[in-house]
C-alpha cells in the first residue's frame, strides 16, 4: 500500500468495481488537489456515480485504494466511513432528496443537527447558506411548497452547511431547466471556490464540466481522457451565459 502525494486531498489507485457481475469501474486512478474542481465526464452508465461513491466511502471498491489526505478510506470500518461522510464530505444527488416533514431551513441544517449542534446555531448557519443561494425567503416552507429549482438549492445548501473538505456532486443540475441549471451551478461554484472546498463533479454535459479546473472522461468504467481547463472561471462564465 502506497501513501498518496501530499498535495492530493483525494487519491485513488486502480479502482475496480462491478454491479452484479457487470463492470462499473475498471482500473480507474486519479488525484484531486485541495481547492480543485474536478469534473468526471461521461455518458449514462460510464461509471461516474460508482466512482463518486467509492471516493466518498459509500462503496468500498472490490479492488484498489482510496485515500483522503493520509487516511486510507478503503480500509476504514463502516462506522468510521460514515463519520467521515458526515463530518468531512458533502454530497449532492441528481434530484433533491429532502425530508418532507421538515421545512427548508431544517432540511438545510440537518447535518449540523445530527452532529449535535444546537438548534439555534444550526439555524443561523443554515440561513447564511440559504441567503447565499437566494432561497432565504423559502426557509419556513416544506418541500412540497417549493419549486424544483428551490428544492435543489436547499439540497445544495445542505451539502455545504458543514463547510466540507470535499463535496461530491453527482449530476447536481441534471433535473433542472437550462436557466435554473445555470443559476444553481453558478452559485454552487462560487461557494466552493470562496471556501476552498475541493469538488468532484460528475456530469454528462460538457458545458457543466467547463466550470471545472480539470476534467477526466470515463467510458464503460475506464478512464479514457484527461484535460486541464485553462481559465476555468472565464470558460464557465461564457458557457453559463448561453
Write out the strand line-up for the largest beta sheet, numbering strands in chain order: 6-7-8-3-9-10
Can you write the helix and strand succession as a string? EEEHEEHEHHHEHEHEEH
Label the structural class.
Answer: alpha/beta
* Rounded Rg: 17 Å
Q: Give the terminus-to-terminus CA distance.
A: 46 Å
Keywords:
10 strands; ABC_transporter-like_ATP-bd; P-loop_NTPase; ATP-binding; ATP binding
Give a written overview of the molecule.
Belongs to the ABC transporter superfamily. Helix 3 (104-114) crosses helix 4 (119-132) and helix 3 (104-114) packs parallel to helix 5 (148-160). The strands form two sheets. Strands 6-7-8-3-9-10 form a six-stranded mixed beta sheet, sandwiched between helices. Strands 2-1-4-5 form a four-stranded antiparallel beta sheet, with helices on one face. Helix content is 36%, strand content 27%. It contains eight helices and ten strands. The protein is an alpha/beta fold and 242 residues long. A hairpin with a 2-residue loop joins strand 4 and strand 5.
Amino acid at each position: 500500500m502506497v501513501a498518496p502525494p501530499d498535495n492530493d486531498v483525494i487519491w485513488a489507485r486502480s479502482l475496480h468495481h462491478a454491479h452484479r457481475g457487470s463492470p462499473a469501474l475498471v482500473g480507474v486512478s486519479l488525484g484531486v488537489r485541495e481547492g480543485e474542481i474536478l469534473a468526471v465526464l461521461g455518458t449514462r452508465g460510464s461509471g461516474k456515480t460508482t466512482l463518486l461513491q467509492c471516493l466518498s466511502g459509500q462503496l468500498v471498491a472490490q479492488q484498489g485504494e482510496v485515500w483522503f489526505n493520509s487516511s486510507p478510506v478503503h480500509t476504514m470500518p463502516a462506522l468510521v466511513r460514515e463519520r467521515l461522510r458526515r463530518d468531512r464530505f458533502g454530497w449532492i444527488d441528481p434530484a433533491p432528496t429532502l425530508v418532507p416533514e421538515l421545512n427548508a431551513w431544517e432540511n438545510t441544517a440537518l447535518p449540523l443537527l445530527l452532529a449535535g449542534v444546537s438548534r439555534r446555531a444550526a439555524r443561523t448557519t443554515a440561513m447564511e447558506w440559504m441567503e447565499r443561494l437566494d432561497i432565504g425567503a423559502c426557509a419556513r416552507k416544506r418541500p412540497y411548497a417549493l419549486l424544483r429549482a428551490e428544492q435543489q438549492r436547499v439540497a445544495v445548501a445542505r451539502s455545504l452547511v458543514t463547510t466540507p473538505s470535499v463535496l461530491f456532486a453527482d449530476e447536481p443540475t441534471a433535473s433542472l431547466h437550462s436557466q435554473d441549471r445555470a443559476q444553481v451551478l453558478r452559485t454552487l461554484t462560487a461557494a466552493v471556490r470562496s471556501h476552498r472546498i475541493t469538488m468532484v463533479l460528475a456530469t454528462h454535459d460538457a458545458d457543466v464540466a467547463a466550470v471545472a479546473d480539470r476534467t477526466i472522461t470515463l467510458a464503460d468504467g475506464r478512464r479514457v481522457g484527461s484535460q486541464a481547463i485553462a481559465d476555468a472561471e472565464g470558460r464557465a462564465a461564457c458557457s453559463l451565459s448561453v
